[in-house]
Specification:
96 residues; mainly alpha; single chain
């Protein structure tokens, strides 16, 4: 992860990062409770937060000191959503 002061994050960046961090916890809970709906809800919320982030925070055209973080967040979103979809047996799109 790129180095950044947590207080310097924009709210959409912070919300997306927090949701990405909950992936392991959500997966563990879904397995313990035999509740795949938890993964569906997680993936839906992750997608909503990414959409909010994408609309509010220019990724490549943003401030130079934010580009690396925003590209990394985009990559982590794609990776995490891909894992969730894979667990659910759904294909992940190659491009959006």
């Amino acid at each position: 992860m790129p180095s950044v002061d947590g207080g310097a994050l924009e709210p959409p960046e912070r919300q997306l990062l927090k949701q990405i961090a909950y992936w392991t916890e959500t997966m563990d809970a879904a397995v313990r409770q035999l509740a795949p709906n938890l993964i569906c809800s997680y993936a839906f919320e992750l997608s909503l937060l990414f959409n909010n982030f994408y609309g509010a925070c220019p990724i490549l055209k943003g401030p130079a000191d934010r580009v690396e973080l925003r590209v990394w967040l985009t990559w982590k979103f794609r990776e995490t959503l891909g894992k969730a979809l894979d667990v659910l047996g759904l294909p992940a799109p190659e491009r959006m």
